[in-house]
Write a structure and sequence with these properties.
This protein is α+β, with helices and mostly antiparallel strands and 260 residues long. It is 38% helix and 30% strand.
């Protein structure tokens, strides 16, 4: 899956930049516009396999608090993931929530600290932990509750000489049209293009995230990429001219998610 996705994206970006850089700026941005910022908190944990059952119990307890926060309007989505493709030094689980404001995001984080859940035994047993606060201006979702679906994350690092608006152009010309089509077809439930709101990694890092409706949805995304490439045999600069692929990584998780 990863190689096909990378190859498809590279070819499609060749099409995108070859066409977009030849059009007036007004024409490029006429249809797709940035949305209000969507902030997301993600807590990643490396949990010993012997503690995975306890992690499930802790996640269920935390869901009650997050349900209340979403009902109150502080957040618009929340969920948890279990990594499906493990690395020796990688994370195994994460929990996350999203808000239309930094204040709403941090209010929920403060509640977690005050409740003592952040120091529960299973978290204390974790061998590794990392937090991220992300922001997206290109996103959409289907409201609802989704159990045992799949989240695919592709992370990229822009080259030092990439245009400052490279992520914006990629989103408007490539990612959003493709993801909106898949969202309308029901192949995916949510997507977002994330950058860091609080920079804990090198600047220029961004991620394309989508939640597939099921395992078949992952295949549908790949097929959509292949079909788009066949339908638009254009030439132009490739993604390699914008992205440092030595820093590219993919992640696949099994997900439980709720969106307002």
């Amino acid at each position: 899956m990863t190689k096909n996705w990378m190859r498809g994206i590279a070819v499609m970006c060749a099409m995108v930049f070859g066409a977009a850089w030849c059009m007036p700026a007004q024409a490029q941005t006429a249809e797709i516009k940035e949305k209000p910022p969507l902030y997301s908190y993600v807590g990643n944990w490396a949990v010993p396999r012997s503690q995975w059952g306890e992690m499930d119990k802790t996640t269920a307890d935390e869901e009650k608090r997050l349900q209340k926060a979403m009902a109150a309007g502080s957040i618009v989505g929340y969920g948890n993931d279990m990594n499906m493709v493990h690395q020796a030094d990688g994370f195994t689980h994460d929990g996350w929530w999203s808000s239309m404001s930094m204040a709403g995001l941090l209010a929920v984080l403060e509640q977690a600290y005050k409740s003592g859940s952040s120091t529960s035994p299973v978290y204390s047993a974790a061998t590794k932990h990392e937090d991220s606060i992300l922001v997206s201006r290109f996103y959409n979702w289907h409201p609802g509750t989704y159990k045992d679906v799949y989240t695919h994350v592709s992370t990229y690092k822009l080259k030092a000489d990439a245009s400052p608006d490279a992520v914006e152009m990629l989103s408007k010309s490539l990612f959003v049209p493709l993801m909106e089509k898949l969202l309308a077809e029901g192949a995916i439930h949510e997507y977002e293009v994330d950058t860091e709101a609080i920079h804990t990694a090198a600047p220029g890092t961004f991620s394309l995230v989508y939640i597939a409706a099921n395992a078949e949805g992952l295949d549908k995304v790949n097929a959509a990429v292949r079909d788009a490439v066949k339908a638009n045999p254009m030439f132009g600069p490739t993604l390699n001219s914008v992205v440092d692929f030595s820093q590219h990584r993919d992640y696949l998780s099994r997900t439980n998610a709720n969106y307002k």
